Every structure is written in C-alpha cells, then in structure tokens.
Amino acid sequence: MAEANKFFGAKEENLYTHLQDLEELCKTFHHEGVPRDLYRWLLFPFPLGGKAKEWHKAPSREAKGKWSELVGNFHLHYFPLPKVQKWRREVVNLLQEDEESLAEAWTRFQTLLKQGPDLGIDENMCAQTFYMAINKESRMHLDGSAGGSFLRLTTKVGIELLGKIAENEALHKHWEEYQEPNWQCPEAMKKEESPAEQILMSESRSMITSKQFEEIKAVRPTSVDLTTAPIGAVFEPISAVTTTGEPTILTTPPSGKEYIKIEATILDNQLKD
C-alpha cells in the first residue's frame, strides 16, 4: 500500500489524501498498550519519495518522536496558508457545472471538503452553501424530494436526503451498464405478443391477480419471499419455464425483454390450463 501511494510533494499532490491513506494503513495494526501515534510515526516515512523523503529528515529529528509536531510541520510545508485560502474559496464559491447532475454536484462538493484542513464550516452551513451553488432545476428537484422545501428540513435530514439521492443515481447508472443496448419499449413489441405478454405489457406485474401470482410462484420457487423482499432484491438462481414448457434454472438474472418472455410463458401455460 505504501508503495502504491507514494507522496513526492509535487504541487498537484494533496497531503490530506495522503494522510488519509496513511491513517487507513495504521488501522490495520493493533497491539495492546501501543499508542496509535507510534504507528503513525513509524510508518509515515515509508510512503514518502523524492523531495518529500529528503524533507522528512530534519523535521523528524526536531520533533523527537512527537507525531503531532511532525505532522504539523508537514501541513505547514505542503499545505501553507495561501493554499488553504485558495481551497476555502473553492468550497464557498462552488457552482454546479453544466451537464452535472444534482448527485454528481453533491459528490464533488463532499470530495472537495475532504481535500484540506477543517475550515470551521459546520454541516448546516455546508447544506446552505450547496443549495445556493446548484442551478434552478436542481433546486426544484431537491425541494420536491424534500416535500416542498429543502431549507425547511433539519440539517441531519437534509444531508441524509442528499446522500440517498447520490446513492440512487449511482444505482441507476449501474443498472444502465447492464441494460440491453437494443431494448425497445413494450409498445414496439405488441405485434409479437401472446395473450400472457399482453397482460404483462399492459399492466404492472404488481397488478397480476393473487391466483396468477401464486401459480407463478409455484413454478418459480425461490428462497426469497417475493411478497416481502425489497424492490431492489436480486433473486438468483431464477426458476422459470422455457418456451417448450419445460422447467429450467437461470443462473444469471434475465434482461428486461427476457424477463417478460419468461413470465409470459408461465402465464400462457396457466391460461391454457
């Protein structure tokens, strides 16, 4: 890990992300009675390279084993006050970029806040700053998600809401990666629909009658209770019926179009009976 995250002290490098990596490494060591600062002191020089490694020699002698003094000198040398002020302006003057979604802007803002020392900006001020930084469409989206007004939410609830929006967008992007590139809307497939497919296309699967649902469950057993499982639950393996009417096990989740065909085949068999 130390070799993979070398810090050379270049202008484009960020000492705070480097120290975060060091902290994660230190957490992997634990011995009863050994203070965490000792691990920090001992491991600190290993990821340093080039000029940063040369710089370390003098301050480490002056600090005489005191981690707080050593890391303080490290901050002053590689993150001086002018750099702190420049970074503060970036945080306070943040603006949502063109083509940037609400979730992307929030993620970028959160990442930016972790790029330097504590600026003394509490969560309430962070939420207000972000709200004023986004465009009109994103503010309307955020207000709608908040039930009318984001600014009327408590800070804790508002931060949680932004986190959920970011998580949902990441999930949707993940789904899109696995979506069929040539997927067509159900209306474009009407000519090929069987009676069962028409049921599935015209009505939500949640609207299938209880009797039909039980019949589907009977030929598609699963270890997960379909009536209580979360919407995003993944069922694997999936038991279904092929177009020949024979039971089969799908070892990977089917695509949207395949799923319609599978459910339709099951219903066709039930309707024929």
From TrEMBL:
InterPro entries xref list: Retrotrans_gag_dom (IPR005162)
Domain Retrotransposon gag: 43-135
One Pfam family cited in the UniProt record for this chain: Retrotrans_gag
Superkingdom per UniProt: Eukaryota
Name this polypeptide is given: Retrotransposon gag domain-containing protein
Lineage: Eukaryota, Viridiplantae, Streptophyta, Embryophyta, Tracheophyta
